[in-house]
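dumping this here before i forget
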Amino acid sequence: MRVNIIGTGISGLVTGALLSKAGCKVHLYEQHDDIGGVTGGVHKNGYHWDLGQLILEGFGPGEQAGSVIDELGIRDKINLIPADRVYAFPGFTIEPPEEYQGPWWRRQFLIDQFPHEKRGIKRYYRYYRRMMEVVTLARRGDSAHGIAAAFYKTVMLFHLLPLLTKKNWSAKQLMNHFFKGEEIKAVFTSILADFVVRPEEFQGLGVALVNPEPAFDKRVPLKFSWCGRQPSYHYIDGECRALVDVLAELIRSHGGDIHTGCEVVAIRTRDKKVAGIELEDGTVEPAEIVVASGGAKETFYGLLKPGELDREYRETVNHIPLMESVFMLQLGLDIDPAQYLPSAVNYYYLTYDISGAVEKLSKGIYHEGQDGYLICNPTLLSPQSAPEGKFAVTIYTVAPDKPEDFTWAEAKQDMADKLIALAEEKIPGLKEHITEMEILTPEDFRKVTLLHHHSFGGCAPVMGKTGAPYRTNIGGLWFVGAQSESGAGMNNVIEGAAKVFRMILDESP
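structure:
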């Protein structure tokens, strides 16, 4: 069975690796001269930078992405380094204590910081534990069979019962239920700013899932009860590019081909079934299966003929809630930033008004870093990310894809200077120690991704909305990636690609 895959981002590569290993004749088509998409990173003069992936959730054995890594048999080919992150707010910083203080040290830290919120904090952590148990049991039930599957699902429902009254709550409602002050609410909802989703729009019960305790201290045990498990967090030694290269090698070792510099301009169909793809030079590549990744609108309105997509699928595509973009600086330094930064990944939130900050972004109003930004020091975990004696640093912040009152081309350097000035509050004298700099604006990301609207993470996690379904109404045409129903995040995208792989095999003659 021949499979043509459009795009060599992580979703396309994982799908291709699984299908080629299963014996399919796989061809991947990449419009650029290099593979990996935004997961491929930036490489210049001996420096290597990720484009924001930083630390990754769920790559451990038995976890979302980790299970796929093991299915592919490539765990021994990538070096996963346990990692965590620091959250800094205007009045306090949440960072791992030098001496480990147990799995629930963050709960005690918050009680000490907000003694008047003590009751709510304890209630939140009871909800947190229960929610993690529900997710663990649900995953075990999905992977088990027969009596074991029924057992896990029954126990899961029992654990879920006390939470059912909150199933339709937003994150804002959940936070109001537990807490009074805006500062502590922001501790648990600030990450939503990365998704450009207001707490009013995000599923309340999902707050626990975007605030796992191991994300804040790599020493926290993942298992906390017989049915309760938290996700692990890792950094890939050699950046995400290392995973890209391993997947590409696996595809080729099983007879698959990766074609670079090949832009797909059409998906060919016949009798409501996919027939292949057409390349920019007019070449037609036939296939029984086509897997597309990337932008949903760009794929289905740009590569198919009008009317080929049914009304229901079009409706979903038209209403995918997309995140906004980012403004990113890739820097090379001649000083070690570790002397100033507490972690490899450091979030600096400068406002507690998460809803207001997201609302501005959605309207095209850029905060110039004043609402918050992030500094990543990959050299701390992966020294080869910079030449000897030098250090790689990434500074970025969420930004509107199309600002309302300026263009990125005209404001590029000015915005870079402002973000560097902010970062100098954390790394003194930063500007004079920069030896290399790449400025990436939403316009630059649009060129890399060929998206009309650059959505940094893809589909935003808005209640009641979803990405494009994996299965289309055209036989043999599938859709994967961050704008698909998998949602955003490397772990979700990788798991989604594996689901599509199994669906393709199950439905093939």
